Amino acid sequence: MKKIINDPKTVVAESLRGLAVAHADVLRVEDDPAIVVRVDAPVAGKVAVISGGGSGHEPLHGGFVGQGMLAAAVPGAVFTSPTPDAVEAAVKATTGDAGALLIVKNYTGDVLNFETAAELAAAEGLDVRSVVIDDDVAVKDSTYTAGRRGVGGTVLLEKITGAAADRGDPLDAVEALARKVIGQVRSIGVALTAPTVPHAGEPSFDLADDEIEFGIGIHGEPGIARTPALSADELVARMVEALVTDLPFGEGDKVLLFTNSMGGTPLVELYLAHGIAERLLAERGIVVERRLVGPYITSLEMQGMSLTLLKLDDELTELWDAPVNTPALRWGV
Amino acid sequence: MKKIINDPKTVVAESLRGLAVAHADVLRVEDDPAIVVRVDAPVAGKVAVISGGGSGHEPLHGGFVGQGMLAAAVPGAVFTSPTPDAVEAAVKATTGDAGALLIVKNYTGDVLNFETAAELAAAEGLDVRSVVIDDDVAVKDSTYTAGRRGVGGTVLLEKITGAAADRGDPLDAVEALARKVIGQVRSIGVALTAPTVPHAGEPSFDLADDEIEFGIGIHGEPGIARTPALSADELVARMVEALVTDLPFGEGDKVLLFTNSMGGTPLVELYLAHGIAERLLAERGIVVERRLVGPYITSLEMQGMSLTLLKLDDELTELWDAPVNTPALRWGV
Amino acid sequence: MACTAETLAAALRAAAAVIAGHRGELIDLDRAIGDADHGENMDRGFAAIVSALDALAPKTPETPAAVMKLAATTLISKVGGAAGPLYGTAFLRASVKLGDAAEVDGPLLVEALRAALEGVQARGKAVGGDATMVDALIPAVSAAEEAAGSDIAAILTAAADAADKGAESTVDLVPRKGRASYLGERAKGHLDPGARSTALVLRAFAEAAR
Amino acid sequence: MACTAETLAAALRAAAAVIAGHRGELIDLDRAIGDADHGENMDRGFAAIVSALDALAPKTPETPAAVMKLAATTLISKVGGAAGPLYGTAFLRASVKLGDAAEVDGPLLVEALRAALEGVQARGKAVGGDATMVDALIPAVSAAEEAAGSDIAAILTAAADAADKGAESTVDLVPRKGRASYLGERAKGHLDPGARSTALVLRAFAEAAR
Ligand SMILES: Nc1ncnc2c1ncn2[C@@H]1O[C@H](COP(=O)(O)OP(=O)(O)O)[C@@H](O)[C@H]1O
Ligand SMILES: Nc1ncnc2c1ncn2[C@@H]1O[C@H](COP(=O)(O)OP(=O)(O)O)[C@@H](O)[C@H]1O
Ligand SMILES: [Mg+2]
Ligand SMILES: [Mg+2]
Ligand SMILES: [Mg+2]
Ligand SMILES: [Mg+2]
Fold it and tell me: Which helix (H) or strand (E) holds A51?
C-alpha cells in the first residue's frame, strides 16, 4: 500500500485539519467527536440539513458543507459510519428552532447510528427528522438484502434539500422534498480497480486486468457481477439500461444526469462516458436538463464510475440552480 | 490496461464531446482541428488568453475555458502538444483587436508548435504574444535540460491572466502580468504510481510497492529520484523545502498554496498533505492567504501530488478572487 | 466461581487482547464480503473499553452491570459501523438484565446472554440463517441455556463452542443482512466477520472465567 | 536510378509502413525516458501522409519538392509534440532545397539531407551528443556527403547505416534536449526514440531506392 499518510489511525483526523484550514471561510472542524460544521452555524430560522457516513468518499460529505447545502457533516473512520454521539454533536452545533433533517445513506451501520442519534437529539427537545436514501439499482430488494445502498443520489439530495433549507422552507417541507427526491433518483456504479482501505493495507478485491465489477457500491465491496472489460459504449449502455428501466425513466422525462468518478478514473474518461450517456438518453427521448460531472462521491482511489439520474421538475431544477458555496460545489455566490 | 474508452485513437475527441454537452452554457468544442472555445468568443475589446497542450491533464486546459479564465484551450493527443494549425484555429476563433496571449508550458513540443502558430497568426495581422511557464523546481537549469517544465503554476497563471483580460487590461499589461506571475511561482511533484497512456497500454514506469518518484512531471516520465516511500510528514517537508529554498519564499511572504492531486490520489490524502504544508509554511512565517486544493492539473490516473506556491501581492490576490465561470473553477458568478 | 465486577472487567480486557490479535483476520474476512473495517472497528472499540477501565483504575465500576454498561456505551461511541450499535445494544441489554447483582451466577449469565441476543435482533432485524453475528449468538445462547446449571466457566465454554460452530455455518449461507447481503450468492463460501468476532469474544470470556 | 515524384511518394509509403510496424517499439522507447507517445505520434503522422497521397491518387504532386512539401505540412499538422515540428521542419527544408527539379540525383539528395539536418538544429537547438534525433542525422548526413558520387540507393544506404550507429550512440549519452533531459543521468542506457525513428525512416528510404 502506498498512500500519502502518516498513520492509518490518524488519516481522517489529519485530513479534516487540512480541510478546515483550506476552507476556513466556509466551514470549521470540531474534534472529538469529529464534525464538520458551517462556519455560520446555527443559522437562525433555517432547517439544518446534516449528513455523514464513513470517510473515504470525499468530497462527500465534508466538501458539501456550506451555504445552500449541508449545515454539518459527520465523518466516520474510513468506510465506517460515525457513532451516534458524533451525529448528535453535529445536530447540537447546527440545529435551532427550525429543526434538522438527517440524510442517511442506507447502510445498516449508518441507519442504526443515525437512528440512535436522532433519539438522543429528540430527547433534548430538538425537532430532528431522518430520511434514508437508497438509490442504487444494483442491489436487490430488501427481502434478500439490507436494501438498496445510498450512493450518487446522495449528492443531489444534499444539494436540493440544502437549497430548500436555505430559502427558508420549514422542516415538514424539506423532509417531504427529500422523500420526493429519493423517490425519483436512481444510480448504478462500476469498478475497474479496487480501493485500498488504509488500515487494511491491501486492495479490497482482486480484479484481473480484463475484468470489471458491475453494480459496485462505494465501499470496495465486490459488485453484483464480475464481467470481462467492456468498451465504454457497451459499459455505459448497460448502465443506462439498468437505470432507465428501474424507475422507469421514459420519453419526455426531464432529468439531471450525474456522471461520477469513483476517484481514480480520470476526467478524460469520465467526460467520454458522460458524452455516451447523454447520447443514449437522447435516443430514448429523455431530456437532460442539468448535469454534474466529476468525482463527487468516491471510494478512495478506486477506478470506476457511477451514473445517477434524477427526474426533474421546475421546483427541483430551481433548487438545483440555487446558490451554493461549499468546497466542492460552488455557484451563484 | 483498463480504461473507460472505446479506442485509444478516439479518446480525446470523444471526451471533448462529453465536455461540450456537459458545459454548453460555458463553452463549445470545434472539430478538426479540435479546440475548446468560450461560448461567447470572441469577446469584443478583451484580450483572449489561450492555452493548450497534450490531453490527459484534465481539467487543464479545457476545464478552464470560460468567463474570467481562458478564451480557448487547444487539446492535443494524450501527452502530445497540439499542432500549430489547431492553436491557430483557437486564436482565430477568439481573438479580436485586443489581441491574444498564448500561455505555453515549457516543453519542447509545446514551445515549437505554439511558436509556429504565433507566427501564422501574426502573419494574419493578429496581435499575439506568448509566455512560457516553467515553474517546476525539480528540473535542473536549461544548460543541461530542455529547461524547467510548466506544471501546477499554469493553473494559477491562467486564472490570473484570465481575470486581467476579463477586467479589460490591454495586451501589454496582461503579458507583463503573466511574466510577473511566472517569475514568482514554483512547483514540485511526486508520484506514487505511474499513469497508463491509452495508446501505450502499459504503465509509464514501474514502481515497487515501497518506492515513490520524487520530482515528477505530468507526463509519466520518471522523476529526478526514486526514493523509498515516505510518511506524509516527511514527503511534504521535502516538497516544501524544495519550493521555499528555490525562489526563495521567506518570512512574511504572502502566498497562494495550491495542493494538487495528480489524478489518482484521493481527496482524503490530499487534504491531509495540504494541512501539513500549511503547518510547515506557518512555521517558516510564510503566510498562506489563498489556497486551491484538488485535482486541477493531472497526469491521467497517476497517484501523487504537487505543491505550487505563488507569491501574492494585492493585485494578484484581487485577480485570483475575481469572478470565474469555467467547468473546473467557478466562483463569484 | 461467580463473576464479580472485577472478573468481568478482566474478561473484557482479555477479550480486547484477543480482538487485537485477530484484528487482521477480521479485516480480511470483511474485505472479502464487506468493506474491510470490522477488525479495525472492533479493535478500536475494545481498546477504548480498556482505556475506559484504565481511566477508572485502581477502581472498577461497582457492579457487573456497571462494567457492562461502561463497555456498552464505549462501544456505541467508538465503534461505529453496523458492529458498534449491535455490540453496543447487546452489551447494554445484558447490563440491564444484570441489574444490581454484585455477582453474576450461572442463571443470571444465561439470562444476560439471551437479552443480548434479543437486543441484537431487535436492533438489526436479522434472523438465524441471515449470515450475521446472530448465527453465532443463537446457538451460543441455546447452549448456555442447556448448561445453565453448570458453573460460569462451563456455561461460557458451551456458548463459545456453539458460537464457533454457528460462525462456521455462515460460510454456506447467502447473507441477507448487512453489507455482505449486496453480494448475494457471491458471498457464499465466506465466514461472516461479525459472527467470527462474536465467537472470539465469547471464547475470551470463557477462557477468562476458568 | 534517380528519384522522381512517384518514387519519392512510394518511399514515403514504405516509410509509413515501417513506422507502423515499429509503432510499439517507439512507444516503449519513449515510455522509458519520455511520455510514451513517439510511436503513436509518428504513426499518426506517416499514416496521414499516406492518406494525403491517397487523396490525390492516381495523381502525384508534380515534383519531388511538392511531394516533400505535402509530407512536411502533413507532419506539422498531424504529429504535434516535439517530433512534429522537428520532422516537419526537416521535410520542409528538404523540399525547399529540392526546388523545381523533376528528378533528384545524388548531389541534390545530399544537399536536401544537409538542409533537413540544419532545419532540425535551427528549430530544436540540439547539437551532437544531446541524445536526440540529431545524433542520428549528423552521421547520416556526413556519410551521405562521403557517398555523394554514388547512386541514390547507395547514398541512402550509407546514411541509414550511419544513422543506425548514431542512434545507438544515444544509449550512452546523458540527454540535454527534449523530455529525456529531465531525467539526467537516469536516462543513460536508453536509446533515444527520435534517433531511432530517424534511422528507421532513412532505412525505409534506402530500401525503397533499391
Ligand atoms: N442487521 C444485522 N443484524 C445482525 N448483525 C449484523 C447486521 N448487519 C451487519 N451485521 C454484522 O455486522 C458485521 C459487520 O460489521 P462491521 O464491518 O464492523 O460494520 P459495517 O458492515 O458497517 O462495515 C457483519 O459481519 C455482521 O455480522
Ligand atoms: N530540441 C530537440 N532537438 C532535436 N530533437 C529533439 C529535441 N527535443 C526532442 N527531440 C526529439 O524528439 C523525440 C521525442 O518526440 P515525441 O515523443 O514525439 O515528442 P514529445 O517529446 O513532445 O513527446 C526525442 O526522442 C528526440 O529525438
Ligand atoms: Mg464499514
Ligand atoms: Mg509527448
Ligand atoms: Mg465492515
Ligand atoms: Mg514523447
Answer: strand A48-55
Q: Which CATH class is domain D5-209?
A: mainly alpha
C172 CA to chain A: closest CA distance, Å? 16
pLDDT on residue B224: 87
Instruction: Please report, in tens digits, the pLDDT of each residue of chain B (333 residues total).
Output: 899 999 999 999 999 999 999 999 999 999 999 999 999 999 999 999 999 999 999 999 999 999 999 999 999 999 999 999 999 999 999 999 999 999 999 999 999 999 999 999 999 999 999 999 999 999 988 888 999 999 999 999 999 999 999 999 999 999 999 999 999 999 999 999 999 999 999 999 999 999 999 999 999 988 889 999 999 999 999 999 999 999 999 999 999 999 999 999 999 999 999 999 999 999 999 999 999 999 999 999 999 999 999 999 999 999 999 999 999 999 998
8-state DSSP, B141 = P
Cell reading at D28: 516503449
Q: Where are the domains of chain C?
A: 5-209
Ligand 2 close to Cβ of residue D192 (< 6 A): yes
C1 pLDDT more than 70: no
Indicate if B23 belongs to the active site.
no
Q: Do B125 and B252 fall within a single domain?
A: no
The preferred substitution site among C30, C133, C171 for testing ligand 1, maximizing ligand atoms within 8 Å of CB, is C133
What is the 8-class DSSP label of residue A95?
-
Q: Which residues surround ligand 6, an ion (CB under 5 A)?
A: D 30, 34-35, 37-38
Rounded-to-10 torsion of CA B85, B87, B88, B93? 120
Ligand 1: centre distance to CA A52 (Å)? 18
Residue nearest to atom 9 of ligand 2 (CA): D178
Q: Which three cell numbers stand for residue D31?
A: 515510455
End of a domain among B145, B180, B215? B180
B304 CA distance to ligand 4 middle (Å): 20
Q: What spatial distance separates the first Cα and last Cα of chain A, rounded to whole Å?
A: 40
| Domain co-membership, B129 together with B214 | no
Instruction: Confirm whether B64 is domain-assigned.
Output: yes
Residue A176: which residues within 8 A CB-CB, separation 6 or more? none
DSSP category for residue C168: H
Residue B219 is a catalytic residue: yes
Tell me what pLDDT residue A144 has. 87
Give start and end residues of each alpha helix (H) in D57-133. 64-78, 83-98, 106-124
A272 shares contact with chain B (CB less than 8 Å): yes
* Pairing assessment for the beta strands B185-191 and B100-105 based on DSSP bridges: unpaired
- Say whether the D–C interface has 3 or more Cβ pairs within 8 Å: no
The b/e string for B99-128 (b: 16+ C-beta within 10 A; e otherwise) is bbbbbbbbbbbbbbbbbbbbebbeeeebbb
Whether the CB-CB separation of B233 and B243 falls below 8 Å is answered with no
Each residue of D49-105: pLDDT tens digit? Answer: 999 999 999 999 999 999 999 999 999 999 999 999 999 999 999 999 999 999 999
In this prediction, residue D160 carries a pLDDT of 98
- Residue B215 lies in domain: 185-324+327-331
> pTM of the entire structure?
0.97
Closest residue in B to D175 (Cα–Cα): B145
| Closest residue to atom 7 of ligand 1, CA basis | C178
Pocket test for ligand 2, best of D29, D30, D125 (most atoms within 8 A of CB): D30
B4 assigned to some structural domain: no
CB within 8 A of B45, min separation 6: which ones? B96, B97, B98, B168
Can you tell me the distance from the alpha carbon of A57 to that of A76, in angstroms, rounded to the nearest whole number?
A: 11
Ligand in nearest proximity to the CA of A79: 3
* Contact status of C186 with chain A (Cβ, < 8 Å): yes
The pLDDT of residue C2 is above 80? no
Q: Within this chain, do residues A65 and A198 fall inside the same structural domain, yes or no?
A: no
DSSP state of D183: G
Q: Is the CB of D76 under 6 A from ligand 2?
A: no
